Amino acid sequence: MSETRLTPNLDLDGITPDEAFAVLGNEIRLDIIRVLWQANAVRRFDEVSDIAATLSFSDLRHRVEIDDNGRFNYHLSQLTPHFVRHTDDGYRLSGAGKQIARTVIAVSDTDDFDFSADLEQRCPLCDAPMTASYEDQWLRVRCTECDGQFGDETPHGSVFLSNYPAAAIAERTADEALTVGFYRCMLDNAYFMHGICRECAGSISASVSVCSAHQPQTENPCPECGTHSQVWATQRCETCGFAKRLPVEVFTMGLTPVIGFLDEHGIDVLAPSLEEIVNLLQHRIETAISKDPFRVTVAIEGESGTMGVSLDEELNVTSLDRPRPN
């Protein structure tokens, strides 16, 4: 198979992504991972302790319910050493094995999961009612009246969209789910602006797009691009492909100096409400674009002055102007 972005030519601890997919594409092997996880056969604290719980070969085979010793040994050997570790005391999950187990747990129990609900929060763009829905491990918040934030690239009226594990949403109300989802999204921005992927710790590439004929109105988006923001940025992991496309001003809020500046003005930008972010975008942030070289300058107004951040076409910070203390 030819190399693609999602199956890069990487050798991760002796196994390529294609090989890892092949290894995990078997019910018996996933059962082995499940049994080891349920038996707590893991190194409890990878970072600080070598203490590990294990299962013997016979005990593990018995719990997986495979009678054929040779067949079981073959499938177990395919998982070792990348997902399962064999020690003198027995078998346990590796760090990668634990990650697979956690992923399976996070997306479990999604069949016939109905999360459709009205939110108590009003749309921050037009003050109309909002609704929440959950599909394909995605939380979608939609305004019932306006066009939303994201234009034609998302379902009409979309105000917030985020991947969201079912295990984290099952016991939360729609408003609670939105609060947690927005918090995770803002943390993603901080990761991205430090060049790190939250999913796999890979490196990030970024690009910027500008609506050259941007003419938004008070409540309606620009008729040219269909959004309220003139400058949008896409940040994508070069290893696993995890990506987000957001207004450049929102990504700028993931920079440490901006986080500190807004905190001084009573805004925890890593845990804000939708209303706070929209208020910032509409009333306290101005964005300017220049060419030769291309620069996007985001000016954030505060009581102590204005912070200015200039970015290039790859979202690298080219200059940072902090307000001088009085």
Q: Topology, pairings included?
A:
Blueprint: H1 17-24, H2 27-38, H3 57-64, H4 69-79, E1 84-87, E2 90-93, H5 95-106, E3 117-122, E4 129-135, E5 138-143, E6 158-163, H6 166-169, H7 174-193, E7 204-210, E8 231-237, E9 243-247, H8 248-252, H9 256-264, H10 274-284, E10 285-290, E11 295-302, E12 305-311, E13 317-321
Antiparallel strand pairs: 1-2, 3-4, 4-5, 5-6, 7-8, 8-9, 10-11, 11-12, 12-13
Structure description:
The protein has 326 residues and is α+β, with helices and mostly antiparallel strands. The chain has two domains: 17-106, Winged helix-like DNA-binding domain superfamily/Winged helix DNA-binding domain (Arc Repressor Mutant, subunit A, Orthogonal Bundle), CATH 1.10.10.10; 117-321, no CATH class. Helices cover 31% and strands 24% of the residues. The chain has helices at 17-24, 27-38, 57-64, 69-79, 95-106, 166-169, 174-193, 248-252, 256-264, 274-284; strands at residues 84-87, 90-93, 117-122, 129-135, 138-143, 158-163, 204-210, 231-237, 243-247, 285-290, 295-302, 305-311, 317-321. The chain has a four-stranded antiparallel sheet, with helices on one face. Strand 8 and strand 9 (243-247) form a beta hairpin. Helix 2 packs across helix 3. It is elongated, with a radius of gyration of 24 Å. The N and C termini lie far apart (62 Å).
